[in-house]
């Protein structure tokens, strides 16, 4: 096992990696508190309904890359204000499940278990298994931001698992073994492909499936901004490894996923009404937690992509998920 340095100044952080190309912080303008003992920070000091200066935004962006989860508590913002904030993090990519796009802006996906007149108002039980967003796309997600609108009476937390810390702790022999390996990804949850299951990936129509590619990403993937390596999407969309028999690949992915989602790498995030949380998809896995379907929970979600020049995706292995997995 490799010993990890702990940051001397900030409780809750592991290695403070200052991303190159981000403005240096002259003086801290925003009071950030750790979300737990491992990673993640929160603040009540930011009001996204008002203009956020470039300096102030740069400070938040740096905290985001350093701490992986940034919670801006107690917001009251419109759809347009939420999209304007997300656009500063990267280019939004509308979700393939277009029937739950927000009526005012397709960049927002509505996550909700609330039904009106018998019809769902949003996507229910999205991502109730460890995964990272858009790892099934050649240019995956840099950040996902959720704006919490209705908080259930019981539960509804999101779990995060630090894949950089998990990578750092791997035995050297395992680091060497996975270094050249490319994971094969497509939309779905490797651990549960039963259509009606609450812990499967949300079902796609045939037309939506046809838009989904089969792609690869490195398993030991350097962060596109900080360069720090993480285990990348070893749970969720990874269904195989290039050049490896399927059963061997699944065994290795399962071993890595069980290891990297151990409680010692996890943060449990509890929502209050109005919280905007942003997480780093290149550094983390995350999972929604199942709740009583009658206990109302609604969040708006925007996912922004990495820069395409940073993508480490290799060849397209099959024309699409639908053609390589005929019904
Ligand atoms: O609802 C949640 O807690 C998380 C859902 C999810 O995986 C996502 O929005 O990317
Ligand atoms: Fe997700």
What does this structure look like?
The chain has 327 residues and is an alpha+beta fold. The chain has one domain (33-324): Clavaminate synthase-like (Double-stranded beta-helix), CATH 3.60.130. 19% of the residues lie in helices and 24% in strands. The chain has seven helices and 18 strands. It has an eight-stranded mixed sheet, with helices on one face. Strand 1 and strand 2 form a beta hairpin. The longest helix has 15 residues, at 246-260. The model is unreliable at 1-16 and 310-316 (pLDDT under 50). Bound molecules: 2-oxoglutaric acid (AKG) and fe (ii) ion. 2-oxoglutaric acid is lined by residues 111, 126-127, 133, 144, 146, 158, 286, 288, 301.
What would you say about this model in short?
This protein has 327 residues and is α+β, with helices and mostly antiparallel strands. The chain is 19% helix and 24% strand. The protein has helices at 54-67, 79-89, 163-169, 172-178, 206-210, 246-260, 321-324, and strands at 33-34, 41-43, 69-72, 101-102, 105-112, 115-116, 119-120, 141-150, 158-162, 182-185, 215-218, 220-222, 229-231, 238-241, 266-269, 276-280, 284-288, 298-305.
β-strand amount: 15-25%
Q: Structural class, please? A: alpha+beta
Which consecutive residue ranges, at least 5 long each, have pLDDT under 50? 1-16, 310-316
Shape: globular
Please give the CATH class: Alpha Beta
User: Which radius of gyration do the C-alpha atoms yield?
Assistant: 19 Å
Helix-strand topology string: EEHEHEEEEEEHHEHEEEEHEEEEH
> What's the helical proportion of residues?
10-25%
